[in-house]
Amino acid sequence: MDTIIERAVKILKDKTTIKFLDLEARKQATGPYDSKFTGTPYLPPGFEYPKGETSGNPLFFLAQINFGEFPHLDGFPQKGILQFYINANNDLFGCDFD
Fold first, then answer.
1. pTM of the full structure
2. Who contacts 81 (Cβ-Cβ below 8 Å, separation ≥6)?
3. Per-residue pLDDT of the chain (98 residues; tens, 9 = 90+)
4. Domain map of the chain by residue range?
5. DSSP 51
């Protein structure tokens, strides 16, 4: 028989647990469409490399996620590439605290 505490814990787990993917980064060669941290991003033909709004300097490519390489998670696309860039030209990496 469940105690009230065990039932409360189960309710909390059911309401707060979310599905996730456990990723493991490996140092290896990647292709243009592969998920990766740093390196060379995929850019479609004619796409201009992202630049900082104020400096106009190229942004630092941080990561690329190819959703087609992973099991589907509700709320996320099943295909497509998402990229992350940051301003690495200053100590705050583009953060603006104002």
1. 0.73
2. 33, 42, 64, 65, 66, 67
3. 579 999 999 999 999 988 888 888 889 999 999 999 999 999 999 999 999 888 899 999 999 999 999 998 888 999 999 999 998 877 777 677 87
4. 22-98
5. B
Residues pairing with 66 in the sheet: 81
**pLDDT per residue as tens digits for the range 42-63:** 999 999 999 988 889 999 999 9
Closest CA to 86 of 52, 55, 54, 56: 52
Cα–Cα distance, 3 to 55 (Å, whole number)? 61
Residue 47 CB-half CA count within 13 A:
7
Are 61 and 82 in contact, with CB atoms under 8 Å apart? Answer: no
Length of the chain: 98
Provide the greatest CA pair distance for the chain: 65
Give the span between the Cα atoms of 8 and 82, in whole angstroms: 38
Q: Name beta bridge partners: 37.
A: 63
